[in-house]
Design brief:
heterodimer; A: about 425 residues; alpha/beta; Rossmann fold; Ubiquitin-like (UB roll); de novo design (two linked rop proteins); 3 domains; five-stranded mixed sheet; four-stranded parallel sheet; 17 helices; 11 strands; B: about 575 residues; alpha+beta; Alpha-Beta Plaits; seven-stranded mixed sheet; six-stranded mixed sheet; about 25% helix
């Protein structure tokens, strides 16, 4: 493990890769050149073989997703790169876009070749102004250098790449909400099926991948699927992974590890607990992941192990909380986030997220009633699995884990008619 | 065609049929709010969650029936499992926690989707114990357009109205604004909801969020009696339900007919019943004496006089019949029989031209611009000038209405005192008055009726049975919503009475019998019978193309009450 050499972040401290020449010098665009010499299907097979799973949150096998795109030329096809990174605690894609934009462009180009899409949109979160500027500059240079445009690297393959900036809605990170927004409509998810691979952007087959997923692709092409599979826990959890660590740690930030690193190692890598505090709980995969207690410290941070532990790896945004944290307050804050970001079209999410926030605030403010924990479970049960998109499922993650795993803390709020933790600011 | 099993009942459906439609085929009602057969499927309300098993494998989550299509054999659907019941109960609860529950003052109460499904799927108490529900202060009565009012507090965000304006009216005035629990419906700046079909959004709204300014607070819907009828606003012949209380019409609502108006009707059509209340009615048979004063007489006296004048007992000279596009085919047929007995070729059906309305349907829409529902049927039944045996020198509508055709007539029979705007025009009335004897039938006490020597009060279309032939030559049947009050009698009753004096074989016939005689006499109606007319109507095999109708001066929509009194 100690011998792990960064893959995705290998260039982040080399500002010269912001230019085409610098990136090229570091071996850039070799994966694309190699891919263009292969049949598109062979590229898909290689990615399938690598075991690369989507880094956006759901962990769907990327190669499999690409293979769903129908062959043939009767309709245009699109790649949409999901750079709408807006889940609280997640800040990994930003690093990739700002420090190594050509890596992303190369990944996008390879994906477009594999599915024979000639247009790629990068949907960037509206607040990521700097990322958009840097990527825009890189795209311009890529056009000038013949990486994008009428003939990608002289192969005759035509590829255009556009940046589309969001307007500050979390829901536009949901893939179909993103497509609606991209088409100029109100950003709200579509009912599935049909899936985007069949009817996506502008009614055409569309692949939607996360920034980090696409950034993995050039390395798979250059170094081979077998090399890629050698990293990670098992054949289903392969490759390097970015973890965005925040909360009560000494050195919060984005860290690259082979997928499946234990949480303990990760915590040590981030300098340990803030001021030597005691770990109370941690969120392993962003705001939507159920909270895990401190005794899960040795968990392997890969998709399947975290799922088995009752949470999810999600976007791998690890939020660490020490024993001064009021979990009711933390979860109430997350509930507020989901209530604010619910698009409002489907009943359970629109009403359920609002109700959960009201209840959690009530408990935190000492006005909770005896049946409230049970009610929270019941409401979240009605939201989860019944909402139109995954936002409803996401919203209940922290709430259910609070009531199920940290019940004594909730009960203490009820019994003491208030929060036993010191008052903090920044809570509405 | 694939077979799907819903609650242990197998049914064969066309590939691509969604589960709500498939369920209806076997009598399984799947609750829904956002789904509407003519609007795009959005799966938003989550009320139609069902359990689905494909190939013996249960799907991990409940699925929305509206967005699930039957593509191949082997799908097993269950709507009654504890999981489904729990989920639907949960959705009901979510919809109600912030709903005002102001049913006692809500117009929708009685035909409200929330009420209906609450009784069936909801719970009797609330777990939402907070002081305040979510409200939209200042958004309780927002006029979206002239005819539609929005109360945002009651909205359940199903977006049927938004999709209606986008997909059916294709005007797109409405949109979803804000987000999450603050989501609301509204119009875009400077774009009020004033398309001709606007009030349809009130019909598609499953709750009381959108109400019609026309019907608002007019009546509790559970006190309304409903009868299938047809709109008389133009010659499209939209199928409607007349909703009235004790003969007081409160509203027209569109009635589904995929061949004509689908689920829709225009706002103008909805307003047409208001004339029945606003325009003064002819109350009794009325004779004008030698001194010009009118006197009420009995029906027997009145019909005896009419018979005498039509037989030519009094004054020699031609008799002319001025028809109307508001007559039913049966009435027109009886008038034509009368004209045949009298032996006159002088018959015409003047019809005003109004706005050209278009109602979207699956065939690409249907348009009509005549301001009366049945010019075609009236002419087919024998009131067109060409229907008479010797029609070469027959008087036309123009000669009667704008020329001095009436002056040469011994008797002028006006079949409808409200046949068009001309009946309210003093000059036209004076021209028609020059006939030797002016006999006027009709429901409205128009200037024409007041000028008549004999005026006979008939039922208007809500009070009579009959058939109309629409712009596409579709024959449609409608029924009286309630009996004509007082001395007013239906046209068929009066005309068979009068015709019976010429030929006893024609006395005391009901509408059905008259229709069957019409079917036997007129080739276009051959083979039809009143009892077996299909609910969606029947397209007549008419080879002739519709001619432009004779248009009297000052054509347009029937005068409103304000125009008459002003």
């Amino acid at each position: 493990m100690a011998a792990f050499e960064p893959v995705l972040t290998r260039n982040v401290f080399r500002p010269e890769v912001l230019t085409f020449a610098g990136y090229r010098q570091r071996g850039g665009y070799e994966g694309l050149a190699k891919a263009l010499k292969m049949e598109p299907d062979a590229v898909i097979d290689e990615v399938k073989k690598s075991g690369l799973r989507g880094r956006g949150g759901a962990g769907f096998p990327a190669g499999l997703k690409w293979s769903f795109i129908p062959k043939g030329k009767d309709k245009p096809k699109y790649l949409v790169c999901n750079a709408d990174e807006s889940e609280p605690g997640t800040f990994k894609d930003r690093l990739l876009m700002e420090r190594d934009p050509h890596q992303l462009i190369e990944g996008c180009a390879i994906c477009c070749w594999a599915v024979q899409a000639s247009t790629c949109y990068v949907y960037i979160r509206g607040e990521y102004v700097k990322s958009a500027e840097i990527l825009e500059r890189a795209i311009r240079e890529a056009y000038e250098q013949g990486v994008l445009g009428d003939s990608v690297l002289g192969s005759g393959f035509k590829l255009d790449m556009w940046i589309h900036r969001g307007a500050g809605a979390y829901i536009c990170g949901e893939e179909t909400g993103m497509l609606e927004s991209l088409e100029g409509k109100r950003g709200q998810p579509r009912v599935k099926p049909p899936f985007p691979a069949v009817v996506g952007a502008f009614g055409a087959p569309t692949v939607i991948n996360n920034v980090e997923t696409l950034a993995n692709v050039p390395h798979i092409l250059v170094r081979g699927a077998d090399w890629y599979r050698s990293i990670g826990t098992d054949e289903k959890n392969t490759g390097p992974k970015l973890y965005a660590i925040s909360g009560h740690v000494e050195r919060p930030g984005t860290y690259e590890y082979p997928i499946g690193v234990t949480f303990r190692e990760m915590l040590e890598g981030a300098g340990g607990m803030y001021k030597g505090g005691t770990l109370k709980a941690f969120i392993p995969g962003g705001a939507s992941a159920p909270i895990l207690p401190a005794d899960k410290i040795d968990i392997k941070m890969d998709f399947d192990t975290v799922a088995k532990a009752g949470s999810m790896l999600g976007s791998a945004a690890v939020i660490v909380m020490d024993d001064t944290t009021c979990l009711v307050r933390a979860v109430a804050r997350l509930a507020k986030f989901f209530n604010h970001e619910s698009c409002g079209q489907c009943t359970p999410c629109r009403e359920g997220t609002n109700w959960m926030e009201l209840l959690l605030k009530r408990i935190e403010h000492g006005e909770g009633r005896a049946g409230d924990p049970q009610l929270l479970l019941s409401i979240s049960g009605n939201v989860g699995g019944n909402s139109l998109c995954a936002l409803g499922d996401a919203a209940i993650g922290p709430v259910r884990s609070l009531v199920q795993t940290f019940r004594p803390e909730v009960d203490r709020h009820l019994a003491e008619r208030g929060c036993p933790f010191p008052e903090r600011r920044f809570f509405a | 065609m694939p077979t799907v099993t819903i609650n242990d009942r197998a049914v064969e459906v066309a590939a691509g049929t969604n589960l709500i439609e498939a369920g209806q085929k076997v009598g399984v009602q799947i609750p829904h709010y956002c789904y509407h057969p003519r609007l795009s499927v959005v799966g938003q309300c989550r009320m139609c969650l069902v359990e689905i098993e494909v190939g013996g494998k249960k799907m991990p989550k409940l699925q929305t029936a509206c967005s699930t299509q039957v593509e191949r054999d082997g799908m097993v659907v269950r709507t009654g499992t504890p999981e489904v019941a729990e989920a639907v109960k949960g959705m009901m609860e979510f919809l109600l926690i912030n709903h005002p529950l102001d049913c006692p003052i809500c117009d929708q109460a009685g035909e409200c989707g929330l009420q209906d499904y609450s009784f069936k799927h909801g719970m009797a108490f609330s777990r939402f114990q907070f002081e305040d529900k979510r409200t939209y202060p200042g958004r309780e009565r927002i006029p979206l357009g002239a005819n539609v009012l929005l109360n945002m507090n009651r909205c359940i965000q199903c977006t049927r109205c938004v999709r209606f304006t986008e997909e059916i009216a294709k005007t797109g005035e409405l949109g979803f604004f804000n987000r999450g629990a603050r989501t609301e419906i509204g119009t875009f700046p400077g774009k009020p909801l004033d398309n001709p079909l606007a009030t349809c959004v009130v019909d598609v709204c499953p709750v009381g969020a959108l109400t019609s300014t026309r019907f608002r607070f007019a009546e509790r819907v559970f006190y309304l009696d409903k009868k299938p009828s047809l709109c008389t606003g133009c010659d499209i012949g939209c199928n409607i339900t007349i909703e009235h209380r004790k003969g007081d019409i409160k509203r027209y609502k569109p009635r589904y007919n995929p061949e004509v108006n689908d689920y829709w009707m225009c706002d103008y059509g909805r307003s047409t019943h208001e004339r029945y209340k606003a325009v003064p009615r002819l109350l009794t048979p009325r004779i004008k004496g030698g001194d010009g004063a009118s006197a009420a007489v009995s029906w027997k006296e009145a019909l005896d006089l009419a018979y005498r004048r039509l037989r030519g007992l009094g004054e020699e000279g031609p008799v002319a019949f001025l028809g109307s596009g508001f007559l039913t085919c049966e009435e027109a047929f009886l008038f034509a029989q009368l004209a045949d007995r009298v032996g006159t070729p002088h018959r015409a059906v003047p019809v005003d031209l109004g706005t050209r309305w278009t109602i979207p349907n699956l065939q690409g829409g249907i348009s009509g611009e005549e301001a009366a529902p049945n010019r075609r049927g009236t002419e087919l039944a024998g009131l067109a000038a060409s229907s008479a045996a010797t029609g070469t020198d027959a008087l036309g509508a123009a000669e009667m209405l704008t020329g001095d055709g009436a002056a040469g007539c011994a008797v002028l029979v006006v079949c409808d005192s409200d046949f068009g705007r001309a009946a309210w025009d003093p000059e036209t009335v004076a021209r028609l008055r020059r006939a030797g004897f002016l006999l006027v039938f009709g429901w409205a006490d128009s200037p024409l009726a007041q000028a008549a020597d004999l005026a006979l009060p008939l039922a208007h279309h809500a009070e009579k049975d009959g058939t109309f032939v629409n712009v596409e030559w579709r024959l449609q049947r409608f029924l009286a919503a309630y009996p004509a009050p007082g001395q007013m009698r239906s046209g068929v009753e009066v005309l068979t009475d009068l015709l019976g004096r010429f030929d006893s074989a024609w006395s005391r016939l009901d509408t059905a019998a008259v229709f069957d005689r019409l079917a036997a006499a007129v080739p276009a109606f051959a083979g039809l019978s009143w009892r077996h007319l299909p609910a969606t109507g029947v397209e007549l095999a008419v080879s002739q193309t519709s001619q432009a109708p004779p248009t009297p001066p000052g054509g347009g929509h029937p005068l409103t009450a304000e125009q008459i009194s002003g």
